[in-house]
Amino acid sequence: MGLAGDDLRLGYHGTLVVDGASLGIEAASVTALVGPNGSGKSTLLRALARLHHPDGGRITFPGGESALDLSAKDFARKVTLLSQSRPTPNGVSVRDVVGYGRHPHRGRWRTGDPGGPRAIDHAMSVTGVTAMADRAVDELSGGELQRVWLATCLAQDTGVLLLDEPTTFLDLRYQVEILDLMRELADLHGVAVGVVLHDLNQAAAVADRIALLDRGRVRATGTPEEVLESSALTETYGIRIEVGTDPATGLVSTRPIGKHLVGRV
Ligand SMILES: Nc1ncnc2c1ncn2[C@@H]1O[C@H](COP(=O)(O)OP(=O)(O)OP(=O)(O)O)[C@@H](O)[C@H]1O
């Protein structure tokens, strides 16, 4: 399983904000989308999740089947998106919200999903929300809620998992655990993970491939070493960004140089 957008043109009210973007989210692999605010990352991810209708281009599964031709339920069995904001339901328990993820697997009368309870328990366990299963979601902190929504996506058990800034609101432990989880899903379960990240060092650490967006276009795609290059990043973000190698991990590492650092580095 995987998903590819080809030559996508995406806009709002007749104004294009993504123009001719192509991006592949491959099976058993983590693809990170990075780029400045407003460069079109969320719009592109939402289009891949069929939440934003393209003005042009194609979205296909491997083999060429168009994602836009599937029924909503069939699509939801294959692709899920953890979006940046979702309305928080009032008075609904964590377990029930995670259960929403099973909707494409259920029959018309919420029946016929023998794997449901196990998938829900597993999703709650790996996101660390089991202890709050009976609490109402509107009582949770931002980070706890983020993990509940992630569990909902995991319970959906799709081959393509799209995540829009999943580490926002999370403390250091859960940021790292979500990165670990992405790698585990790709490496052990063959999931195609597409993730928007602002932290370039997190992207370098977790991703097999990175796509750098710049004003609605994919400026570069490739391995972290290929894409995280000082002059391209400096031009794209409009601030000096130095690139080196982390001596401890051997991973590519980036450092934006603000005025407060001039003279110190
Ligand atoms: N609902 C909307 N109506 C009109 N324009 C929008 C809407 N949502 C986004 N845009 C515009 O589309 C462009 C791309 O926005 P998008 O949210 O995809 O960028 P992004 O790269 O995800 O940004 P960020 O890093 O700030 O989340 C921006 O110029 C934004 O102002």
Automatic annotation (TrEMBL):
An example Gene Ontology CC term for this record: plasma membrane
Main localization (coarse): membrane
Listed SMART domains: AAA (SM00382)
Record's bilayer topology term: Peripheral membrane protein
CDD domains for the chain: ABC_Iron-Siderophores_B12_Hemin
Gene3D superfamilies xrefs: P-loop containing nucleotide triphosphate hydrolases (3.40.50.300)
Localization (cell): Cell membrane
A GO biological-process term: iron ion transport
Domain ABC transporter span(s) in chain numbering: 3-240
Pfam families: ABC_tran
Keywords: ATP-binding, Cell membrane, Ion transport, Iron, Iron transport, Membrane, Nucleotide-binding, Transport
Family annotation (InterPro entries): AAA+_ATPase, ABC_transporter-like_ATP-bd, ABC_transporter-like_CS, P-loop_NTPase, Siderophore_ABC-ATPase
Gene Ontology molecular-function annotations: ATP binding; ATP hydrolysis activity
Protein name (record): ABC transporter ATP-binding protein
Organism: Kribbella turkmenica
Lineage, top ranks: Bacteria, Bacillati, Actinomycetota, Actinomycetes, Propionibacteriales
